[in-house]
Amino acid sequence: MEEIKVIRAKTLKPKPEDESKLVFGRTFTDHMFTMEYSSAKGWHNPTVKPYAPLELDPANLTLHYGQALFEGMKAYRDANGDIRLFRPMDNFARMCQGAERLAMQPIDKDMAFAGLKKLLEIEKDWVPHSAGTSLYIRPTLIATDAFLGVHASDTYLFYIILCPVAAYYKEGLKPVKIYVEDEYVRAARGGIGFTKAAGNYAASMLAGTLAEKKGYSQVLWLDAVERKYVEEVGAMNMLFVIDGKVVTPPLRGSILPGITRNSVLQLAKAKGLEVEERLVSIDEVYETAKNGRMSEAFGSGTAAVISPVGHFYWKGEEFAVNGGVMGPIAQDLYNTLTGIQYGRVEDPFGWSIKL
Ligand code: PLP
Ligand code: COI
Q: CA 217 to CA 86: how far, in whole Å?
């Protein structure tokens, strides 16, 4: 593999003074990693260089037709001061699956991982130390052809940027209120919902904004065909505890195959819980939340890990799950998963990678 070039920043930014005040996605580190693709050279020119704006042609294909994918993962500082990643190759593999669907060039996963490790070696002091903080990692793949024909790009840029982030929850895990969206949809089967394509997030913005205005933190997405079956919650996967079983919608093409979702399901099984991947209708959510058969509802994702749902709003009515309080299964899964991520809890799965 081509050796990674390193160009050091001449001046370094001050590190955050108060790690508890970091706003997600606003503070970036001193360096970034980039690599380029052309059919003649393949993936080439892997470089760690100063964080800087990209220069893009106004006809850049990504800006017009949205050939763009991103990933999200984190680096965690453990009690010994070492830096750990959580299932990083799964993120790169998911980006490759997305690339195939968007007719983009899949990344060279080994070059990407080598680049990430080199970048983290240089930026290691940016991995925050306070409890619950981490360094959010944003790998991104964009098309770079300057061409207005509707045609897949021949050239691509892959880059990784880093942001130190605070603990997602300041005072424990606070259950959120969710608006059940039965007009707008995020993704349809056969489309690109299973990828982390930029376009999926564009499709979600309006509903998210309207829900916020009504006092809800996120929307619950329903399927695009019948507006009947639960898909995801905001930008997280959705899980329920119904009759004591962990239940989550199956991956049928419109849902992102979350790495946290997969980890939660494996952990739940290892803890002896029954797990069901099956369709869950919004009527079932309403009925079982009301009659108490549903004891918990929570989202799963890299940013928050587990985010309990306290209330849903649907068809003019707000109803609670478990009296609006976080349940014991979500709490236990959260403790174990974050324990593995920060190296506090034994990891029989081989998920936590110490650098
Ligand atoms: N669903 C969507 C739409 C997402 O953007 C994310 C974000 O990361 C997830 C689910 C959760 O995926 P993961 O657990 O891999 O972070
Ligand atoms: C997650 O990590 O759970 C997210 O939803 C990331 C988001 C910023 C797209």
A: 27
